[in-house]
TrEMBL record:
Belongs to the transglutaminase superfamily. Transglutaminase family. The gene is Tgm3_2. The keyword Cell inner membrane does not apply. The keyword Metal-binding does not apply. One of its GO terms (cellular component) is cytoplasm. It comes from Onychorhynchus coronatus (Royal flycatcher). It comes from the Eukaryota. PANTHER family: PROTEIN-GLUTAMINE GAMMA-GLUTAMYLTRANSFERASE, PROTEIN-GLUTAMINE GAMMA-GLUTAMYLTRANSFERASE 6. Keywords: Transferase. Residues 2-86, 106-197 form the Transglutaminase C-terminal domain. This is TGM3 glutamyltransferase. GO terms for molecular function: protein-glutamine gamma-glutamyltransferase activity.
């Protein structure tokens, strides 16, 4: 989840009956959806001894403090482990994983029934998932081809807040509501909901 530390485990299994020494070069980078690297956020080398048919786990932690400011709106991190089995004429194995961080940010609550030409109130809750305060918070609410910009108060670390948004639908059928939340530390966190408007 975006804003939390990332905990990974690399599992190494020695399938042979001989002892093996494996050198592991770990790296992680924030990337764009095109896989282009933005910034390297982790580099570590370790050596592991594996006995006959033995497996070992290597724990890897990427704190938010290491990745937060280098993340793009794609929220992607590429982690690679280059595992070299020593004394085997350069036998290497590359393990790759792309992590897409989740946003658990925007929650939109609708009334049970929404009717044409009657005012309805939505509850939009939003959060700062980070371990640090955020300011210059803005919500952009798009509904019925209109966009409303709402400036919000600063949020403390991990704070959740909410606003109430009133609107009057002019026709029955489905309506798309889109919410876009930005602040000084992250941008374009989106929430969507389809509203079913009943005839009066």
């Amino acid at each position: 989840v975006f804003g939390k530390d990332i905990n990974l485990i690399l599992v190494l299994n020695n399938l042979s009956s001989d002892r093996k020494t494996v050198k592991v070069d770990m790296s992680a980078s924030t990337i764009l959806y095109t896989r282009r690297t933005v910034a390297e956020i982790l580099k570590a080398t370790t050596s592991v001894e594996l006995g006959s048919k033995q497996g070992k786990h290597i724990r890897v932690k990427i704190p938010y403090a290491h990745y937060g400011r280098y993340l793009t709106t794609d929220k992607r991190i590429q982690v690679t482990a280059l595992c070299e089995v020593m004394r085997t004429h350069g036998l290497k194995l590359l393990v790759e994983k792309t992590i897409i961080l989740e946003d658990t940010n925007i929650i939109i609550k609708l009334p049970r029934r929404i009717v044409v030409n009657k005012a309805a109130t939505l509850e939009i809750s939003y959060a700062n998932p980070l371990p640090e305060p955020v300011s210059r918070c803005v919500l952009l609410v798009t509904l019925m081809n209109q966009q409303v910009k709402i400036n919000l108060a600063r949020l403390a670390p991990r704070e959740r807040s909410k606003i109430y948004f009133e609107f009057t639908p002019r026709r029955s059928g489905p309506l798309q509501l889109q919410v876009d939340f930005s602040c000084d530390k992250f941008s374009h966190v989106k929430g969507f909901v389809t509203i079913a408007v009943a005839p009066s």
